[in-house]
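Quick log. Single chain, no ligands specified.
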Amino acid sequence: MHHHGYLWTGPKPRFDEEALRRPPHAEPPAAGSRPELVQRYREMAAGFPISDLPPLETAYWLVKPGSLVRGTWGEPKEAAVWLGERMVEYMARFGIEEDRQLARISSLVDSTALRLDSGGDVSLGFYLERPSYLSLAVVTCSPNRSRPGLTCPVR
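-> predicted structure:
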């Protein structure tokens, strides 16, 4: 088991485009469906795996290109430290004063290490100067507890 780190920052309105953050339905539209529905499904099926937007379900980072992986660690604590370093890197830009507290960041690092150690994933988000948003995630891989069928994006 190992862990992959992901970071996305960008305009909050883009982050809010939930349709682009959902994997396409497992079954395509039925034969005879409206052409625009079929086209929309094709666009989503082709776009979701290559989009850099954070998926709504953290485990789905694993279907994204390996180039989006910001780091890989064998130990949960190492991955949690990376997450903490990113929070410190961005904390001066956090839009909420409480998120800038080092004690809060330390607590999040500790809880991240515990969650990863139990095989879970971690996803955190922070408002930056408006209208920007920071999304950080660490995903457990090989296997992922919530989506064991997803393969490792890094070979």
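The longest helix spans residues 102-117.
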